[in-house]
Design a protein that fits this description.
The complex is a heterodimer of chains A (about 160) and B (about 525). By secondary structure, chain A is mostly helical. Chain A is built from five helices and two strands, in the order H-H-H-E-E-H-H. Chain A has helices at about 1-20, 35-60, 65-95, 120-125, 130-160, and strands at about 100, 110-115. Chain A has a two-stranded antiparallel ribbon. In chain A, helix 3 crosses helix 4 (about 120-125) and helix 3 runs antiparallel to helix 5. Chain A is flat and about 65 Å long. The termini of chain A are far apart. Chain B has about 525 residues and is α+β, with helices and mostly antiparallel strands. Chain B has four domains: about 10-135; about 170-270, PAS domain (Beta-Lactamase, 2-Layer Sandwich); about 275-350; about 360-520, Heat Shock Protein 90. Chain B is built from twelve helices and 13 strands. In chain B, a hairpin with a 5-residue loop joins strand 4 (about 230-235) and strand 5 (about 245-255). In chain B, helix 7 (about 270-315) packs antiparallel against helix 8 and helix 10 runs antiparallel to helix 11. Classes of the chains: A mainly alpha (about 160), B alpha+beta (about 525). The interface between A and B is large, with 51 and 57 residues. Strand 2 (about 110-115) of chain A pairs antiparallel with strand 1 of chain B.
Chain lengths: ~160, ~525
């Protein structure tokens, strides 16, 4: 009871200070243009870290070695690589000069201007990120499909009456 | 050196890839959804569903965004795309952040799955153990049932065997409780003790059947002291008063704590055996007496003849002296009595050597004797009941001797009655035993039990001095024995018909038809 009362007292005091000792620094923060970009990059880092963690967990504590889990792990791997790819492409894109991309009257005429050093080449190749995320999503779908078939088999083995064609 | 690279391939791959991602995302969503429907309780499928949902959202958000960008740029509306692009990017950020959060959450899901899996394995193993235990229990039950069945069968057979022994034994078998009350008895025991039903005997104290209570007390003390008695002779008494001689073997029964809970015993009826033994002893005794009598008779007969001769000569000399003549007459009379006794003794000892062996009709023999004796019987108002069977076969024997036996028995009957009474004579033939029975009964006072085993002894008589020599029955016994038979005295008669006829004593002559051929002549 005493600890609860102390918490309430501190909270009341904190609110009191906030109300009677205002300053401009404590007003609503303004989120400028680089913030969204940084947040997005941080999101990619967070996503990459989570996928790395997942791969580590799946590798260390494998549930089984069925095709479903294999597809799942491949999918996670592709997502991880895709994340890294997009992360770097975002950074390279930010570093790209404004005149590096020449747009025409039509998309067909859009071009990337050289010189094609390593950075510019990596940027160009990195743009093809769908070669990573499409297989990633495909493997995820296949993984779930296999899980589904396995679940159906398990149900059919448990109860033959549920074996609906 | 390349100066430009076209971005159109990038856009094409982007556009097609975005569409494919959306398609595969929808397929993944379909299977994830189906999984949750198939196994709604699965934590993994629930996680997979939300994980897929987040990826689908990412794919759709990104795919749609790219497609829209492509379309807007293609139709020449880059300004519009510029205003939409931050939203699309923000949405993308939110979706893959969500996927990341969910991905990190997999560890917890895995823990849950692991725990559930471990619990499931433990449950499965427990079920297996339970099944094994049930199987073992079932086998044990089956085995137990089989064992019980086999044991019951053995017990049943054992029970049947011992029940058969108990029920079928011709000896008395009984069980008593600690108060010596009969609790169970076999049918032979019931019959031996003179009862008709087992229920009549059960519940009776065993001591009731002892003729002599002192003997019972002695038995009881002996059994209590030693725990058993073995082959001890006892005399029991039936409800009708008849006595039976038995050899008893009794053992105490103890419970699991060693306390006496009763006794069990076996009794063998030796009544007949004892009678036969007594007859044998009697026969031996009579044989020895016969030999003695023959010697004595032979030695005395000559002096007696001389005394009698001289007495008669002196009578002639003292015809004038009445006193002396009277004394001599007394000497002559007493000497004649002595001669008769000696003569009887000689007959007893040489009973089988006098007359010729021929076919004898027993009925004819009886009629001849009755013709002589009936007159004297009538004087004493003794009436005759005569039941002579007509199918009596002739026997090989000595007619004179047999006639003498009948005379002796009739005389004894006459003496037993004295005045007024009935003498019954029966003859019958048992074709099974091939035996002729001649029964001579009287309505006299009967033979006291204490002298029943002495009546065939030589010189044993109940008649007053001078009236009987005590050799009649002995001689008769010897004659019948020579004919292969025996004489039996019953007082009172065992057969009801004789008792109903008023007979107190019956003398039964048993004459075997075949054995008569072998009698030494």
């Amino acid at each position: 009871m005493k600890s609860h009362k102390l918490i309430i007292d501190i909270t009341v005091l904190f609110v009191f200070i906030l109300l009677f000792l205002p300053s401009t620094a404590l007003a609503v923060q303004v989120h400028g243009p680089p913030e969204g970009f940084i947040v997005h990059l941080m999101g990619h880092v967070f996503f990459t870290a989570s996928l790395g963690f997942l791969i580590y967990i799946l590798h260390k504590y494998p549930l089984d070695r069925s095709p479903a889990w294999t597809y799942f792990k491949i999918s996670i791997f592709f997502w991880l690589v895709w994340n890294l790819d997009t992360f770097f492409v975002h950074i390279l894109s930010a570093r790209l000069p404004r005149d590096a991309i020449i747009t025409g009257p039509h998309l067909v005429y859009s071009r990337l201007k050289g010189p094609f050093d390593l950075e510019r080449s990596m940027y160009y190749l990195g743009q093809f990120d769908h070669f990573l995320c499409v297989p990633a999503m495909y493997c995820l779908a296949m993984s779930l499909k296999n899980f589904c078939q396995r679940a159906e088999r398990a149900i059919n083995e448990e109860d033959p009456k549920k074996n609906i064609p | 050196m390349i100066e430009y690279l076209p971005l159109f391939p990038v856009y094409v791959v982007d556009f097609i890839g975005a569409l494919l991602v959306v398609v595969f995302a929808l397929i993944a969503f379909f299977y994830a959804r189906r999984l949750t429907i198939l196994q709604p309780k699965s934590v993994l499928w629930t996680y997979m569903f939300w994980f897929s949902m987040a990826l689908v959202a990412l794919a759709v958000s990104r795919g749609v965004g790219h497609t829209v960008r492509f379309v807007l740029l293609y139709i020449g509306l880059p300004g519009l795309w510029k205003s939409i692009a931050p939203f699309s990017g923000g949405l993308n950020t939110i979706t893959f952040t969500s996927v990341a959060v969910l991905t990190f959450y997999y560890s917890n899901v895995r823990d849950v799955i692991e725990r559930v899996k471990n619990d499931a394995i433990a449950l499965y193993e427990a079920n297996l153990r339970l099944q094994k235990a049930q199987e073992a229990l079932r086998r044990l039950n089956l085995n137990l049932e089989k064992m019980v069945e086999e044991r019951t069968k053995e017990l049943r057979q054992s029970e049947k065997k011992f029940r058969g022994l108990f029920e079928g034994s011709k000896d008395l078998i009984f069980f008593c409780n600690e108060q010596h009350i009969i609790e169970d008895i076999n049918p032979s025991g019931v019959e031996l003790l003179g009862f008709k039903s087992r229920t009549d005997v059960i519940g009776k104290p065993f001591k009731e059947f002892f003729r002599d209570e002192r003997q019972w007390k002695m038995f009881k003390e002996e059994v209590s002291k030693k725990g058993h008695i073995k082959d001890v002779e006892a005399q029991l008494v039936r409800p009708d008063g008849s006595r039976i001689d038995v050899i008893l073997t009794i053992s105490v029964m103890k419970d699991e704590n060693g306390y006496i809970k009763g006794c069990e015993g076996i009794g063998k009826d030796i009544t007949k055996m004892k009678q036969v033994t007594e007859s044998l002893i009697q026969s031996e005794k009579m044989a020895s007496v016969g030999q003695l009598a023959a010697g004595v008779a032979h030695e005395i007969n000559t002096p007696l003849g001389i005394i009698l001769g001289y007495a008669q000569l002196l009578e002639e000399d003292f015809e004038d002296n009445p006193d002396a003549l009277e004394s001599l007459k007394i000497i002559e009379k007493q000497t004649k009595i002595c001669k008769r006794i000696v003569g009887d003794l000689l007959k007893f000892s040489r009973s089988s050597s006098d007359s010729e062996v021929a076919d004898v009709d027993i009925n004819e023999c009886i009629n001849e004797v009755l013709a002589i004796t009936e007159h004297s019987l009538n004087i004493d108002r003794i009436y005759l009941i005569k039941n002579l069977s007509q199918d009596i076969p002739p026997i090989k024997g000595k007619k004179e001797k047999l006639r003498q036996v009948i005379i002796n028995l009739l005389n004894n009957a006459h003496h037993a009655i004295g005045h007024e009474g009935i003498i019954g004579i029966w003859t019958e033939y048992d074709s099974k035993t091939k035996e002729i029975r001649v029964i001579i009964g009287d309505t006299g006072e009967g033979i006291p039990p204490e002298i029943q085993n002495k009546i065939f002894d030589p010189f044993f008589t109940t008649k007053s001095v001078g009236k009987g020599t005590g050799l009649g029955l002995s001689v008769s016994f010897g004659i019948i024995k020579d004919h292969g038979g025996y004489i039996e005295a019953q007082s009172p008669p065992k057969e009801k018909r004789f008792r109903d006829a008023g007979m107190e004593t019956v003398m039964i002559i048993h004459l075997p038809v075949n054995k008569s051929d072998n009698q030494n002549g």
